[in-house]
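# step 3/5: fold
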Amino acid sequence: AEYMGYKEKGMLGAKSPTSLPKKPVYTPFGYGYLEVKVPSKEAPPEKVESKEEAKNEMQVVHLKSGATVTLQQNMISTSIKLRFKTFHGKRRIYEIPVEITDTIEIIKGKLINIDEAMELVKCKHIRLIYSVGKLKELLNSSTVENQELPDNALIAVIGLNSFTWDAALKGSDIELTNGSLSVSKKQVQDYESVLAAAGFSSGRHYWEIKIDALIEAEDIFIGIATKDINLHAKPTESLPYWGYICGAGKSFSPDDEECQPYGEMCIANDIVGVLSLIHISEPTRRYAISYAVFCLKKK
């Protein structure tokens, strides 16, 4: 293929009386606009070209970088392939052909349609992240061309679920407020727990807990547990339950006979980030679906 890279002052954006509106295209040298000519009335009828001749026909493209190149037609395209990697459930990579004029919202729809496990449909929000030296979120209203995504680019798919506590899976003295986002005790009794409304069986999950009040070391436990835990028992005695004792700075799990030192002790107004990373190793995995869990002792 012939490539003539040269920069012409004022070429980009300049409108010729014989040019049609810009037609965006993708080339090996990046995105640009195809120079399309309006045939003159006096011009003789164009010869009908064979497919081979059409592929080898030379076209002028004004690149977004400012250069103008002349390329064979087979080096110019209005569509590319993108790869999408999911980070939930059974981690997959999907390859999807897209038009460069497709919006990110259209692409999310295509992604949901080919999701074999139907995992993305369950997500309240889907974020597409592209790494170009730094992480860049692709906005719904932008197009492939706007974002200048290269052919075969790898894009991370982040599925977000709405996180709330489950009113049906809590101790009798647990009170939920603020749209089931806040947890408190009605009265001082023994330990009681509440589970999240959504569970997960694999993947990486993150949420944050803000501690409004904490008096004693073992007032608050946070972590993950299976659905069948005893909601009215101390977490370390209600396994399977993996967690963190906020006021003591200790962790506990089904595999530990005693609590282990883990991080700093929390105080009121601290925000605790919880990162859960679950690996699938069926059929040896002992527990099925896990839920975020929060346990209180004091009011």
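# step 4/5: annotate
The longest strand covers residues 192-200.
# step 5/5: archive (pending)
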